[in-house]
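A quick aside before the break. I want you to see a complete sequence-to-structure record at least once, exactly as it would be stored in a machine-readable document. Don't worry about memorizing anything.
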Amino acid sequence: MKNNAYGGIMAEKGWVSARKLEVTGNGSAKGSTGHGIHAGVGGDDRIAADISNGAKISQNAGHGVFSQSGVRLDGTTVAVSDNGEYGIYAYNDVRINNSMSVSAGSVVNISNNKSGWGIYSQSGDISIGSESRTSAAVNSNSLGGIRAGTGSVTARILEVTGNQGVGIKTPSNLDIMVSGKICDNTGGDLLVGGIATLTNVTRCDSDNDGSGDSVESGDVNKDGIPDKLQNHVTVFEDVAFGADGTMVQISNAYSEYETEGGAKYGFDLDPKTSGSRDNSKRDFTPGSTTIVTIWLPEGVNPVSYFGYGPTADNATPHWYDFLYDGATGAEIADGKIILHLKDGARGDNDLTADGEIVHEGHHQISGDFTGDGATGLDDVIAILKLLAGIEVSVFNADLSGDGKIGLADAVIMLQKIAGL
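That is the input. The structure line, written in tokens, reads:
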């Protein structure tokens, strides 16, 4: 079933059963749901999409497989990849290669689905290879790897890597029976509400805070506990400035690092979740507050901190002074910056007490007149432009301490650059 305008196979009120099926490139027509397989309500076993002896379901505009009941896929090769939405979206159970008749060494690949989870069951269990010697890879999906809305997740050999969001999410139990690898998922590797049984599983993010163990190998907040074991402590590398090692400790907050423009640290904060990396739900009391501590590299001594975004008097995003005023803002301390943030107040980019805090900002070091987080010739040029009458924004440019901005400040900056 290839390249059909309105989707591949649709049984809106019935079920789909097939052997060795390929469904690719369907759903190009405007307004089409574009699913590879759209199945309705199943029989007694609640399976509406039942494919045996192998399946390739890829490059469909919508979900690879959408079932208003359950999904069962068996075969030596099962691939659900590169679809426009979810890989597999089922209301009930998802069972992949659970039959003992499936050959040893069978492979399951659920990857690169563009606008959804690799595998999602709304109200059932997800089971992959539990009764066969199957290995499965659920990688590089845009919302996350595997999510069970109410049920459990069971797999024999499972790799879940590189997903945008949580690797595996379930409110119940997770059981990986033989071996696995769960790494480099941007929302953290696991969110498990029940018991997680991980046999021979390689983990790259032990505390599920979105920063890998290799980055969090130290103890930045010096509490005697490795940062990789504390999901309220997250360490980021400032890639834009040559991995300067800037450290971030998060207190009762969800965090997401931004490098846009190479000049800002960004935080998407949820005070209620205490470090949870749940991308899909941010429901906390509107008007809540949170504290974020930025641990700075040795030798970095900021003189100020600026937020970036709209303010009450200027709806256009811009840099603004965000020093602590007793309610919100940044406190500059020895080796760290403490951000005080409140939902809906100064520093929250949507300026609305809506249960979500979004903040962008960056500290400023002495001589960083442009506010880009570094010192260089651009800062000298900014001063010279200002003195020439060209409109330009500069911050804390009075290095000479004479109460005005002049050539003396540009000379001091040039000496600093030259190491004099």
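Two observations worth writing down. The first strand starts at residue 9 and ends at 11. The two ends are 72 Å apart (CA to CA). We'll return to this after the break.
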